[in-house]
Amino acid sequence: MAQPILGHGNLQPASAAGLASLELDSSLDQYVQIRIFKIIVIGDSNVGKTCLTFRFCGGTFPDKTEATIGVDFREKTVEIEGEKIKVQVWDTAGQERFRKSMVEHYYRNVHAVVFVYDVTKMTSFTNLKMWIQECNGHAVPPLVPKVLVGNKCDLREQIQVPSNLALKFADAHNMLLFETSAKDPKESQNVESIFMCLACRLKAQKSLLYRDAERQQGKVQKLEFPQEANSKTSCPC
Ligand SMILES: Nc1nc2c(ncn2[C@@H]2O[C@H](COP(=O)(O)OP(=O)(O)OP(=O)(O)O)[C@@H](O)[C@H]2O)c(=O)[nH]1
């Protein structure tokens, strides 16, 4: 059912019916043992959210983009430690008028959040506080991993947001910082790392939760902790 609205790097229109079928499809997928991680990408308009998600899911930089209306879905199936996982990326609208009716859907059952700013535009960095507030206002659990991404690093001469300032901000909010470029093909590995890092963390976290739930049901006698939920050992970053 998700096929009409999900695509590998394709821009697809979203509708309330489409969102409902996506949520239904997510639960059906559990029966075929493919886990889906919903990752939302948030930030000011024009910071490059669409281009970053395109780079990760499709491996290319789009020639031309238009302002996202509502949300565009992209997905990529990745393999982590032998398990196939669907990373479902929600490319959200940065413009208030194109996002207001969708905000509740963005945050519902979200597994991870990517906050994006443009390294050449200081206001996109200062506005991060507002985006974090919005996220917190939707009762996103503290365990949901969040990362900070400074995009457009290829525009070296125009950088306005120094790395040390961004790092301080990321530390203060308990996030990892990635500085990258959706445009520069040499950075594609770095873009991949953003999403893979989150997927690895989620896999580690959810394995623990799963085992914990099984233990409570008496299915597992002994709870083992081979690695911490936030362990970096299985994380490509
Ligand atoms: N130089 C450079 N330009 C970029 C990069 N990423 C995106 N852009 C350009 O920035 C503009 C906006 O990119 P989008 O990906 O559409 O921005 P967005 O954040 O999705 O915008 P909204 O949909 O309005 O929220 C486009 O002209 C892109 O070509 C980058 O890494 N480097």
From TrEMBL:
GO terms for biological process: antigen processing and presentation; autophagosome assembly; Rab protein signal transduction. It is a lipid-anchor. GO terms for cellular component: endosome; Golgi apparatus. InterPro entries: P-loop_NTPase, Rab33A/B, Small_GTP-bd, Small_GTPase. It catalyses: GTP + H2O = GDP + phosphate + H(+). It is an enzyme of class 3 (hydrolase). It holds the Pfam family Ras. Its EC number is 3.6.5.2. GO terms for molecular function: G protein activity; GTP binding; GTPase activity. It is found in: Endomembrane system. Keywords: GTP-binding, Hydrolase, Lipoprotein, Membrane, Methylation, Nucleotide-binding, Prenylation. Its cofactor is Mg(2+). Belongs to the small GTPase superfamily. Rab family. NCBIfam families: small_GTP (TIGR00231). This is small monomeric GTPase.
